[in-house]
Write a structure and sequence with these properties.
The protein is built from 8 helices and 11 strands. It is of the alpha/beta class.
Length: 276
């Protein structure tokens, strides 16, 4: 009954305002919803995918606070952020996060290459012979994200598969870098989300895949849930499947957050509390 990964039109590639997503969550019986639009970046970089600093200060943050008051007693609304990881911008992002009292920060990798000349993934180059190398580069970037200290939750761990293009047969290097990223998540006491948006993409598979969740369970990595909704009707999309994975790979425990403190809660307790 928790959806921590949602976006609004402030992200420029989503539709609807915050209240639309909250109303959708209430209609579907959720106990908690988090708003997690993409963070502003230095020098106005990548404005087609994120808020400006002015939009954050004038619309996003006060909007969350107003809605928390308006819907008090109906649903718990958490103040979140999706922080994109670009090596070289860690100080900017850390300072920005420290200035605000977020309940949680989701860390994500959407771009590869050197800042600021980054390349959105998955890119057309994935159609060529460098697929394995790009997978390795992606998981290495996720490892760096996990060690950066900027986030509490790792988003869509295997986003690199989004277009359905998989590594070739000789994928030991991919596996090795993927396992290093998982170990970094565990060693830095982070949580990983089960993100259902992959089921709505060309790959038609949840993030992360079940074989990755199995390894994450061996490492004892806690899990939470996110729809990555970019339109209000997608809040909680395919969560029955996500809940079954929580039961299977996290012993029915789901991670919830407040003021960047994580607690592992029995999923059934959330359901029962919401019913009352």
């Amino acid at each position: 009954m928790v959806d921590y990964h949602t976006h609004t039109r402030l992200c420029k590639h989503a539709v609807g305002v915050m209240e639309d997503y909250i109303e959708s969550a209430i209609g579907k019986g959720f106990s908690e919803i988090g708003v997690s639009c993409h963070n502003p970046m230095p020098d106005g970089y990548d404005l087609e995918h994120r808020m400006t600093m002015d939009e954050f200060n004038q619309i996003y943050k006060p909007g969350v606070r107003n809605l928390q008051q308006k819907y008090s007693g109906a649903i718990t609304i958490k103040f979140g952020l999706e922080a994109d990881y670009y090596p070289g911008t860690e100080s900017f992002v850390k300072n920005f996060i420290a200035e605000h009292d977020f309940d949680y920060v989701i860390g994500s990798v959407h771009y590869l290459g050197a800042w600021p000349g980054t390349e959105l993934i998955p890119a057309p180059i994935f159609e060529r012979v460098v697929v394995n190398l790009r997978y390795e580069e992606y998981f290495e970037r996720v490892r760096q994200l996990a060690e950066s200290g900027i986030c509490d939750i790792i988003a869509h761990f295997d986003l690199v598969k989004k277009n359905g293009i998989r590594p070739g047969n000789e994928s030991n290097g991919v596996d090795d870098t993927m396992y290093r990223a998982l170990r970094a998540i565990k060693e830095n006491n982070l949580c990983m989300e089960i993100n259902t948006s992959g089921l709505r993409k060309k790959v038609a598979e949840i993030y992360p895949a079940e074989d990755i969740l199995e390894r994450a369970a061996e490492y004892g990595i806690p899990l939470t849930t996110g729809s990555d909704a970019h339109k209000p009707q997608d809040v909680g999309s395919d969560f029955e499947y996500a809940y079954s994975l929580i039961d299977k790979y996290a012993n029915g425990k789901i991670s919830v957050f407040s003021q960047r403190n994580r607690e592992e809660v029995d999923r059934e307790v959330l359901v029962d509390n919401n019913k009352t």
